[in-house]
Each structure stands twice: as structure tokens, then as C-alpha cells.
Design brief:
Two copies of one chain form a homodimer. Chain A is of the alpha/beta class and 336 residues long. Helices cover 31% and strands 19% of the residues of chain A. Chain A has two domains: 123 residues, NAD(P)-binding Rossmann-like Domain (Rossmann fold, 3-Layer(aba) Sandwich), CATH 3.40.50.720; 197 residues, 3-Layer(aba) Sandwich (Rossmann fold), CATH 3.40.50.300. In chain A, α1 runs parallel beside α5 and α6 runs parallel beside α7. The relative contact order of chain A is 0.11. The interface between A and B is large, with 49 and 48 residues.
Chain lengths: 336, 336
């Protein structure tokens, strides 16, 4: 599938979905759209992912395209009206448009009319299945060893850690499945339920459904969301923890981050506090423990400093730790 | 408003909404509908609430009616097709129909057509406002002393404890407000957001909106939902805890209950475990503590045994405790 990925003003640091697809997706990326960086290239910023040119608008992308993917998600998940010309342009040239926003493209009259006219599809991956219901409490019965990534904040690298674990487990010949819970994960996996968009009564039920459906693998790596200490998103985190009933947790943190992103008056508690909170909260439903840590050191330039930060993080949580992007996840897999 | 309340097969023990309206609502209840108990009366079961006859169907209810209220909510919140004749009968005689189900009556073609034909309204109190968004982390800034009821399970008496606290506080001359978060509370209050039906990303935001809108009272009593240890509903509980940012918690438990209702393979942890879990989970966002306990002793016949159970519960949580229905809430208010 040949795609363009919209990431205006946010590429690469705040374009989690765009970067996730460049790194882990099987898409052929024709271009990233960022009006602040036309003429530059993905490899100028991210040497280790699929390269692509950066264009200012959809009209600057040449050749056939199957889809435009909205690769950024602002807080609140709204649609930024400055993106409208690109979505319209994509539909007018017959491209599908795929988005993971709370705002559904298919509910937009202009987009729907254009999609009908040009025979394209509007795919809102955040739209939950209509038949979700409450959890039955059954995820603990699956055969798979269920591993959940949990965090100290949003955007600490839970999706990345999960994907690195899946890939490394498969490289070892393990029978490993992936349970996406966010828009990027669902886009990479080509399916799944974006749980932060589910009715909160059904959040655990949505995760339980995915875990039980995929539960016949040897290992199941579940992408976590948010943080149990997040002032806005903890409900989602809690629903995933109790819905997935994991056998093991991997705690994800970003080196140097000491306040909740976008909520700077809320300090991030010490990693050991997170270990205790996640384990204590899980225990009444399904006992589990933090078996390893994943530290995101993207803002630590020096390699030695990154290694030291990882070692400190491991000491803080009293478990093996790594940076799954910079180093490898062998020790984490060994801990399972 | 003269109403009939549908509670087929569930009155009184499993008809939380029906009983809540009989007890705390300002509605004139013409009849309760329960096909298992036609000809009996509310006062045969509940001597201390508004009395009303029990009828088998809506057609057995005489006189003018303003509305039919669906007063039961099965697990999952679906519409039971055996209720259809009563809803149809109500609409055909010109009554509004008010429900708090996940299934929206207004989305049902037959009901919508009948409502249009007879000029009635279909009010789905669980339908969230369309403009909800993520929490901003601002509930801690309100002037009011915010008191949240939290539980060890669903249906432990959080709504009842909250209403008793509001009424007793007002009897003392305190300026006390009520924040409903469930369908019964919203029906009693004549408004509010039913938070278990919100998108889980917005659950904390919905509670924050209600708290900040009503935050200029001296005291604000927030109705809690579920339990932080519930395998299906903990996401909602967590969103309320972090969205409301309470100054004080009142822990609600039912005497003798030792497993999660409907999830009997999940034991309910000791009340002191709940105290620690709620306080530890709240702390990173907004420090708070369990200042009192509310024990539901409805299944304890003997008065002395109920007093002893309340005393034991107080010892278990190391705070003053009462049964807000059987005894009074003076000590709880004193603890605030």
C-alpha cells in the first residue's frame, strides 16, 4: 500500500503515528507531509527507519497513492481544519484516508460526499466495534503468557517497546502475538480496537476481547496506554490493566522527564512508586509484577550517559532495563 | 411529574434506579411495573420510601402519566425486548420515556416513530454531551470541599450514601451540592453526565466539568461508581477519582459481601486494602484520604449485629463508619 502520511508541524518528535508507521508498518511511504519542512527527508531526522521525502502538501506528492494517513493526534483528538485541503486533495485523486482521531472523518459531510464521488474509503480506526460490552473477567484464562507495557506518562515509548519485543521474540522463534490498543498500533497491525475511544464501561471488555481472541499464542504483547498516575488518561490505563490480566508488566519511562507532558504542574512520581501502584492495583484482579523496564533515551545524546540512565532506571525499579530502540530487548525477553 | 417505573423481575433488590427514585426523587410515582409482583405494593418491601402500587404492565396503570422511567439496568446496559410492550404502551398514551441504558431508546426506529406520532420525548440520560473532551487537571482548583464516595464493589450503596450526605448536610444548613455520575443520580438530579457511558479518554474530563461547574458551593458530594478492584468497571472508578480530585473519600461496602457481584470468582479484598489503593492511586494527582466509611447492612436483620458490623468496618478502615440508611451520617459529616 503506497501512502502519504500527514504530520504538519509535528514531524518527527510529536508525530508518534507517522514515525510508528515508518518504523514498523509494511506500508510503502511515498511522502510525509509537514508544511514546516518541505524538501527535507525523513532520513535527515530518523536514520534508522524507512526513508521518504517530506512534502508541504498532498499536491506535491507525485505518482499513484493508495491512501493518506493522518499521522498526528493532537491532545483531545480533534481535526485540525488546516489539514482539510490535504484530505480533500487526497480524496479528489481517489485516495482512501485513514485516521485515528476522536473526530470521525466519515461523519464529516464534505469528506463523505467526496469519498462517495471518487469511490474512496474513509477509515476511522478509532471507531469502536458496535457490539462491545463489559468484561467477563476471562483474560486470565488464555494460554499465552500476556505481557503488558505500562508507563509513567503518555508518549514514553510503550508502543515502540511493545513492537520491539514482538519483533525480537519472533526473531528468537517464539510464537508471539501483538495486541494493539492505540491508533498507531492498530494502523500497523491492520486492525484492533483503539481502546481510548471505547465507552469507559467497556474499556476492559475491549482489551479482554482482543486478548482472548489472540490468546492461543505462546506470548502476547499488549500495547499499554497513558499512565495510572495521569490526571486525564488513567481510566484507559486502568481498564487495560484489569482487562488484559497480564502475567508480566514492562514499565516504560522517558529519561529526564519529570512532569506529565502537557500537564506540567503534575510531577511524575518515582519509577518505584509506579511499580508499586501497578502491582498493587493489578493484584486483586490478577497478580502480576513489573519484570523489566524500557527507558526511552531519545533525548540523551551521549551513549555512555544513556547506558548509565538505563542502569539507574533498572536500579530504581529493581529489574532489568534497556532502551529498546537504542540497545536491544534481549534481557527483557530473558526476564519473561 | 407523575411517573411509572419499569422494574420487571428485579424489584426491589436489583432495581437500584427504581428504588433510588422512590427514595430521593421528587417524582409522584403512580406505579412500579414488575410482572412478578402484580397487586403488591412498594411498602410491602420498602417501608421507608414513597409508596406506590405494583402493576404487571403499563396498561394496568390508571390515570394520567407524564413519563415511564426504565428503573433497572442489566449488566451491559442492553434493552430487554420483553420491556417493549410497556414502552410502546407508554408512548401510545402520550408518555415520555426516560431510560439510562447503554442502548439508546431514541435510536430505536419503532420508539422514535411512536414518539413522533404521539408528541412524546425519548430521554436517554446516559447519552453524553457531544462536546466532552479530556480533563485539564483543574478540579483541584475549586473552592468547594469535594467529597467522593468510593466502593469495594458495584451496588454497595455509593449513590445512597451520597444522597444521604447531601440531605444531612443541607439539614445542617451547609451549602452542599451533588454531582451525579450514574443514571439514577442523573434522574434524581434532573441532569448530569452518566460517566460510564463517556469515551474512556474523556471520563475524567466529564467529572472535572461537573465538579468545576458546581465548584462554588461549600461542599460538593460526588457519586462514585464501581470499584478500583472491579475486573470490568475499574476504568470508570479511576477516571472519577482523578477527574474529581476529591479532598476526602467515603468508602462504601456491603456487610457480608466477600466476592464481586456477578464475578464471584473474584474475592473482594479487605477494606483496608481498598483504603490504601484509593489513597495511593489518588496521591500523585491529588492527595486525599478515606475519612469515613458507609456500610450497607440491608442484609443484616438484627439491629445489634448491624451496629457491630458498622463498628468492625470502622475499625477495619481506621475511620468513623455508619450505615447511612439504617443509622445517620452525623459522624461522617463531623469527619469532614
Amino acid at each position: 500500500m503506497r501512502v502519504a502520511i500527514l504530520a504538519h508541524g509535528k514531524f518527527p518528535d510529536d508525530a508518534k503515528t507517522a514515525v510508528g508507521i515508518l518504523q514498523y508498518g509494511e506500508h510503502d511511504v511515498a511522502a510525509v507531509l509537514d508544511r514546516d519542512r518541505p524538501g527535507e527527508r525523513v532520513c535527515d531526522f530518523l536514520p534508522d527507519v524507512q526513508d521518504a521525502p517530506i512534502a508541504g502538501t498532498i499536491d506535491d506528492v507525485e505518482g499513484p497513492l493508495d491512501a493518506l494517513i493522518v499521522g498526528i493526534a493532537p491532545i483531545g483528538g480533534g481535526f485540525d481544519e488546516t489539514w482539510r485541503p490535504d484530505v480533500v486533495g487526497a480524496l479528489e485523486r481517489g485516495c482512501d484516508v485513514i485516521a485515528g482521531l476522536h473526530y470521525f472523518l466519515a461523519d464529516d459531510e464534505e469528506f463523505r460526499a467526496l469519498a462517495d464521488e471518487h469511490g474512496c474509503e474513509l477509515r476511522d480506526v478509532r471507531r469502536p466495534p458496535p457490539d462491545l460490552t463489559v468484561a467477563a473477567g476471562t483474560a486470565r484464562e488464555v494460554d499465552a503468557e500476556v505481557v503488558l507495557t505500562v508507563g509513567t506518562d503518555c508518549s514514553t515509548g510503550k508502543m515502540t517497546a511493545t513492537m520491539e519485543l514482538v519483533e525480537a521474540a519472533r526473531d528468537r522463534g517464539w510464537d508471539a502475538g501483538f495486541v494493539p490498543t492505540g491508533q498507531t498500533g492498530a494502523m500497523i497491525a491492520g486492525g484492533g480496537i483503539v481502546v481510548d475511544r471505547t465507552i469507559s464501561d467497556f474499556t476492559a471488555g475491549a482489551v479482554e476481547r482482543m486478548v482472548t481472541e489472540r490468546g492461543d499464542r505462546d506470548y502476547l504483547f499488549v500495547e499499554g496506554q497513558g499512565a495510572i498516575t495521569h490526571p486525564a488518561y488513567s481510566a484507559v490505563t486502568c481498564g487495560i490493566l484489569h482487562g488484559a490480566m497480564p502475567d508480566a508488566l514492562v514499565l516504560c519511562h522517558e529519561a529526564g522527564r519529570d512532569a506529565i507532558h502537557g500537564y506540567e504542574s503534575f510531577p511524575i512520581p518515582h519509577p518505584s512508586t509506579h511499580v508499586a501502584l501497578y502491582e498493587d492495583l493489578a493484584a486483586p484482579v490478577r497478580g502480576t509484577e513489573v519484570v523489566a523496564g524500557a527507558l526511552n533515551t531519545r533525548h540523551v545524546d551521549d551513549e555512555a550517559a544513556a547506558r548509565e540512565a538505563v542502569a539507574d532506571f533498572g536500579d530504581a525499579i529493581d529489574a532489568p532495563a534497556t532502551d529498546p530502540v537504542r540497545f536491544d530487548v534481549g534481557e527483557v525477553l530473558d526476564a519473561l
